[in-house]
Structure formats: structure tokens, C-alpha cells
Amino acid sequence: MFNLEEFIEKVARECHEANRAYCKLIGDNSQLPWDKAPQWQQESAMDGVRYHLDNRNSTPADSHVSWMAQKEKDGWVYGDVKDPEKKTHPCMVPYEKLPMEQRLKDYVFWCIVRAHIAINKL
Is 86 a residue whose pLDDT tops 90? Predict the structure, then answer.
């Protein structure tokens, strides 16, 4: 039997791990494996999967807008450095102002979710 919440967590885990691998590729070794990632980070990934399930025509740019709205709701603001304690993040800018290497994170996330939607015929 298909369990939607298990599916969301599975896809979020894959998105997280792909993002972690991509971050390593660009010199960012700060991302922890899914099982060691903080709960807020896991929830953020699951929220992203839910967003794309609910908004089938969304784009990677829409993904960023949704991510940023959730971060703002949780009290995050722009900061030169990502700091979970201070809730600052350098990606708290409009999608168009993100460096290409950061935009690619949204694209990878979007591609993984879209692939799961297609494979599972959702």
C-alpha cells in the first residue's frame, strides 16, 4: 500500500543527499548526512517535496520562492553566512539574484521530485 508520508520522506532524503553531494562538489563540506541532519533541515526538504507534489507545474525558481517563504515564516533573514543559530542565510534573496551554483541546487531538487512523480505515476 502506498504511504504518502513515507514517500515524501524518501524523496526528501534523496534530495538532501543529492544536495549534499553537489555542495561537496562546489567546496561546501558543511552538509551532514540525512540521518545526522537537524530536524529543521529534514522538515525543510520534506516541505519542498510537498510543495512540488501540490504544485505540479512549478519550476526550480518557484521552489526557491517557496523555500524562502518558509524560511521567512520560521524567522530566517539574509546574512552573508548560513548560521542556524542566528537564522541567517546568504540564499535569502530573489531567485534571479542567486549565483548559478546556488540556482542549480533548486534545479537538482526539482528534477529528483519530478522523476519520482513520473516513476510513481502520481
Answer: yes
